[in-house]
Structures are given as C-alpha cells and as structure tokens.
Design brief:
Helix content is about 25%, strand content about 25%. By secondary structure, the chain is an alpha+beta fold. It folds into three domains: about 110 residues, no CATH class; about 90 residues, no CATH class; about 140 residues, no CATH class. The chain has a seven-stranded antiparallel β-sheet with strand order 5-6-15-12-11-8-9, with no helix packed on it. α1 packs parallel to α3 and α3 runs parallel beside α5. The radius of gyration is 26 Å and the shape is elongated.
Length: about 375
C-alpha cells in the first residue's frame, strides 16, 4: 500500500477518508522519520475536508456530506492517533467530535456502541450494553468499538466469538455448517483471528484492534460427511450438496417421491460431493483408476495431504445409481471465470422410487 500520484490512498477510483486516516495511523506506528513526517502532512491535509460537524465519506463528494455518522467513523482512528501520539495535539479535536457524535440520532447498534465506548473511555459516566448475533461484520465492529475499554467489558463478546470459531479450518462458522462459508472471502473477523497484518485498504480496520485475547475455537462441523483440513495458508474441503427433493439426516440421504427428468445428467444428479482441486487427486476402486463407480463399491480418493474412502449403499427402497467423477464447481463457488476449481463426484439417478442411501466416508 502507498499513496498514489494524487497524494492519497485509493480504493479503486475513489479516495475514502476513513481508509486514508487508517493508513496515516499505520505510517505513524512504523515510527520512522520519513513515515512520521508524511503521516503528519497527510493528517493536516485530511482534516481540511471537514464541513461543519461532519466530513465527506469520499474525497470527490466534498463539500457534500451524505453520511451523517461519518464523523464517528473517523473519530475512532483519530482517538487512537491521539492516544498513541499525543504530541500531534488532536485531543481538543477528538473531544469536540465526540460531543458532536453524542448528538447524532438513529444510529445502528454497532455504531452507537462506538461513541458510547469512546465516551466512557474518555471519562463520561455511560452504561455499556450490546447484543450478540452471528454476523461477522457486526462482531468485528463490536470488537473495535470496545477496544478503548478494559478487556472485562468485552469478555462475553470474545467468549461468544470463540463458540463460533473453528481452529480446524481457521474460519468463523457461527451456527452454520462450514460448507456454506468455505468459498467466501475472508471477513475482517477471520483475518483478525488468523492474526493477519493489514495488506490492502480493505484490511486497514485491523489497525483498530490493539489487543485481543487468545481464542480457542470450539465450533464443529454439522455434517458427518463433510471434511475440512489444512491450515490458514492452504485449506481443503470435501463438501456435500443435494437437490431439494433429497433430505440429509446424519449419513442418510432420503430421496422423496418427486423424481426429476433422468435423461439429463445435471437434473438426474440429485446428490454430489465436491473435492477442491488445489491438489492433484486420484480415484481408484480395487486398485484401478476410475471415473465412475456404482452402489456398494468403495472408491479410494488420494491427495498429497489426505486419503479417504467413499461409498454409497442402498439403505431402504429401490433404486439404481451411478457415481461420475468430473471437474466442476460447487454451487457456492463465487469465482465465475470459466475455470473448474473442484472435483465433482455426482451420484446420477438411473431409476428409483422413494429410497434412502447411506453415505460412508473413512479418512486417514
């Protein structure tokens, strides 16, 4: 990251004041003469864009201010700049902006908590309370809001986050199965818990977290078929997906009375497992390489980091099925660039009535 030829940090074609103020904080923390002088120059310049009691969100909006709590967004990094570098003389400005923020109405809960926590940290007698919900952006905003206060104020927040964090896959699961979040972009909460350093403008809010307790994640995966392994740098997954007419209970897949058209492989494939293709994989049955296998056959799947055996067995009812292995993308894949990022193990229905299949997966 660096200031562009315009003299500002850009996010795409726009110049946001919040991210630029965070970058100024980053430069100050580097504690170099060059960085300090540049940060001081940019700070003085940025503060010139104040319009009455507020600031524009983006430079091109000046002198218009379309976001009534932008002053509060800028107040938190200004508080930390003043707290860590008091010789810059921002105390009066921080106090003034805090008083302005306390007069704002109809703020979202996490934004309201920011001003109340700051007011309490600066000596005002204000009661702090907050609700908890499994939303990663909301939880991260609670974290940065409570940073100016003693850790006792945020103890229940960190305990709540630990309940939804998986040490195994280094992702925040919350109340969901990990399948639904595996492909999504890392949230700021996840980047914080992975102890990442800010590396791009979108990650600069990590600078507002000055301390965090060690977290031991206790969340577990909900599906006995899904498997996640690896580490923060390279994660892998085997994930189950199915059509609406198939109900999953434990390791049983129950097929309903609705039967899709069976003359098309996509509609006839009512259940699939997806193995990410970050590593090479081999598929064998009885020691022979295969691209298809039947009910009752045990397919051994081998990658450099994992080996497991997968099988489908008829548990009740009647039906004929055939598993086909091909490259593809799981339904939750967000990249739409024409590449196939998974191995798709699709169980095609040849004929069936209402029936149940047992899925077994043995890992080593």
């Amino acid at each position: 990251m660096k200031f562009e030829q315009t003299g500002w940090l850009h996010c795409g074609l726009e110049i946001p004041l919040y991210e630029n103020l965070l970058y100024i904080l980053k430069l100050l923390r580097e504690r170099t003469v060059e960085g300090h002088l540049l940060a001081k120059e940019k700070l003085n310049h940025l503060l010139q864009f104040r319009v009455g009691d507020n600031f524009p969100k983006k430079l091109h909006e000046f002198p218009k201010c379309y976001h009534n709590w932008q002053v509060l967004d800028l107040l938190l990094p200004l508080y930390w700049i003043d707290y860590e570098f008091p010789k810059l003389g921002l105390k009066g400005l921080v106090v003034e902006l805090l008083e302005i923020s306390l007069n704002l109405d109809n703020l979202p809960p996490a934004v309201d908590l920011k001003r109340k926590a700051l007011a309490k940290a600066m000596g005002k007698d204000i009661e702090i309370s907050y609700e908890l919900m499994r939303d990663e952006d909301y939880l991260f905003n609670l974290i940065i809001a409570l940073q100016p206060l003693p850790q006792s104020e945020s103890a229940k927040l960190w305990s709540y986050i630990a309940d939804g964090w998986s040490d195994n896959i280094m992702r925040y699961i919350g109340d969901r199965g990990a399948q639904s979040g595996y492909e999504k972009k890392l949230s700021l909460l996840e980047r914080l818990l992975r102890k990442e350093e800010p590396s791009d403008p979108s990650s600069l809010p990590l600078l507002l977290v000055s301390s965090a307790p060690p977290i031991t994640g206790t969340a577990s995966l909900t599906s006995p078929v899904d498997e996640y392994w690896g580490d923060a740098d390279q994660m892998h997954s085997l994930a189950l997906f199915h059509k609406p007419q198939v109900e999953i209970q434990g390791n049983l897949a129950s097929y309903g009375e609705e039967i899709p058209p069976l003359d098309n492989i996509d509609s006839a494939t009512e259940l699939s497992l997806y193995l990410d293709a970050k590593e090479p994989a081999t598929f064998t049955v009885s020691g022979k390489s295969v691209s298809t296998f039947g009910i009752g056959e045990r397919c051994q799947i081998t990658t450099p980091s994992k080996r497991f055996t997968l099988a489908f067995e008829l548990a009740s009812g009647e039906g004929e099925f055939r598993a086909h292995i091909r490259r593809g993308n799981r339904p939750t894949q967000t990249l739409k660039d024409g590449e196939a990022y998974d191995w798709a193990i699709g169980l095609k229905t040849l004929r069936r009535d209402s029936c149940s299949l047992r899925l077994t997966r043995d890992c080593s």
